[in-house]
Write a structure and sequence with these properties.
Shape: globular
Bound molecules: nicotinamide-adenine-dinucleotide
CATH class: Alpha Beta
Structural class: alpha/beta
CATH architecture: 3-Layer(aba) Sandwich
Radius of gyration: 20 Å
Helix content: 40-55%
Strand content: 5-15%
Distance between the termini: 49 Å
CATH superfamily: NAD(P)-binding Rossmann-like Domain
CATH topology: Rossmann fold
Amino acid sequence: MGNNLLKGKKGIVFGALNEMSIAWKVAERAVEEGATITLSNTPLAVRMGTTNELAEKLNCQIIPADATSVEDLENVFKQSMEILGGKVDFVLHSIGMSPNVRKKRTYDDLDYGMLNTTLDISAISFHKMMQVAKKLDAINEWGSVVALTYMAAQRTMYGYNDMADAKAMLESIARSFGYIYGREHHVRVNTISQSPTMTTAGSGVKGFDSLVDFSERMSPLGNATADDCANYCVVMFSDLTKKVTMQNLFHDGGFSSMGMSYRAMEQYLKSFDGIKDENGNIIYG
Ligand SMILES: NC(=O)c1ccc[n+]([C@@H]2O[C@H](COP(=O)([O-])OP(=O)(O)OC[C@H]3O[C@@H](n4cnc5c(N)ncnc54)[C@H](O)[C@@H]3O)[C@@H](O)[C@H]2O)c1
């Protein structure tokens, strides 16, 4: 149920591929909160995915674009302003892809051409998006730009590969552009660092099921779901967070502040019978 948090606001949501996509949930919640939006994804994703169903359901238009193409992005912002009847108030960057991960190239055997593609799609596209928006003056004063990221940008996580470098760059771009966009147009720029979430992109990460289980056990509030993330994005697009900018906001049930939880430790200890006493109780050292 909506609370009109985004009543009268206009936005662009990049990256809704199918109903598991975080961007899909964000688009639904934003509209539920009173926003009017356009959707964007690659021409291939629009053809192969189910974005059309979402557009129909939300009564909004899709503007296909490869987010690495400045020309395509210009078209998205220009067309969105035409369709929505003016500048936009919020933008969601929910885009990530690593050919090295797809081709199972390990981090010590990266293909550098593929690394460039990873960085271009997953990080530099965020810069391109904002540079285009700023040059076209496409975002209203006190607008909000959010990109989705993952904690592997700060801490090494098994299997995340070159996406960790892309996310570190993405978060840095949020700070660097956030300074300029804030100073000149009061536009805020943040990244939301989301729990592992079962989506098409997420399930490409090596050992993803175990990662989801581990972080669930480690997080006092449990993993944040895609629906939880959509709620957080709505708050970040709303006027309730006008002075939050240049931040990497952890949205992970507490995972990022944990060292070890009892639930994770208990699972780990299952393979160490020697540290239980005769009654089966764990002996703490
Ligand atoms: N799923 C997770 O565990 C998780 C955790 C933290 C952060 N994230 C981030 O959330 C974001 C959304 O991912 P998701 O998990 O919803 O998966 P998803 O696969 O549904 O979304 C990824 C999207 O990126 C789009 N994309 C790929 N290349 C593109 C290009 N060149 N131009 C435009 N769009 C392109 C895809 O078409 C797809 O819609 C990504 O940035 C991802 O890294 C995901």
